[in-house]
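Our collaborator T.R. sent over the components below with a one-line note: 'Predict the complex.' Nothing else. No constraints on interfaces, no templates requested, no preferences about which chain binds where. So this is a plain run: every listed entity goes in together, and whatever single assembly comes back becomes the starting point for the next discussion.
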Amino acid sequence: MEELFRISYPVAAADYVNAGKASTDIKRRLKQLGVGGDVLRRVAVASYEVELNLVIHSMGGELTLTVFPDEAQLVSADVGPGIPDVDMAMREGFSTANDEARSLGFGAGMGLPNMKRNADDFSITSELGKGTTISMSFKLAQ
Amino acid sequence: MKVSELTALIGAKNLTTEIAEDKEILCGYACDLLSWVMAHGEEGMAWVTVQTHMNVIAVASLAEMACVVLPEGITMDEEILAKANSEGLSVLSSPMTAYEICGKLFACGIPAHV
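Returned assembly:
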């Protein structure tokens, strides 16, 4: 399938001031490409969650949006620290967020389950000491 | 109910004066855990929260909410309000508590979900 558009955003660890900028830009660009309604909202929610996960939990990483005629793909790849127990991390209500994140209202343990709920396809792989990769895809209306 | 009608209903001050208060409020919500709101936020929502940092604007605008309502006279910093103005998101500050604001919204028939 022909790739229409691709853009990557570096996301810094613990940068709460700029958190949300990548997702806001992703939403704006998809809107420009004619994506709207429920799918735009789901991509916006999932991209914000994954961006905040990079800010809260990773040592830094990159969020990449790739748009095809019938699908949008979001891939988040970080440089560590990796998730010791992915099954546990996927549980609603489980969070390892630190006090700074919690004081801002994060750390409810809803991030990963919320991504899975909003994406049409969701996968996560993680290796301790290496990093975590989250891939999501969203079907676009023709 | 339009945002302007809610402003009058709860005796609020509109902190985002650069944008029209003409969005339609479809549902209401009160929560201070942002990741919880991200999971449950809906389009057209009037969201009552005591959180006042930049991520409130990101969450509300990404979920296409109608407005953010700050209870008990809380305000936001100018740079946060500038961001809300640029995103077209109304921010209201009411002297009422979150409980009273939600009670008023509920009594006017605003539901919890769209």
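Summary for T.R.: DSSP finds five helices and five strands in chain A.
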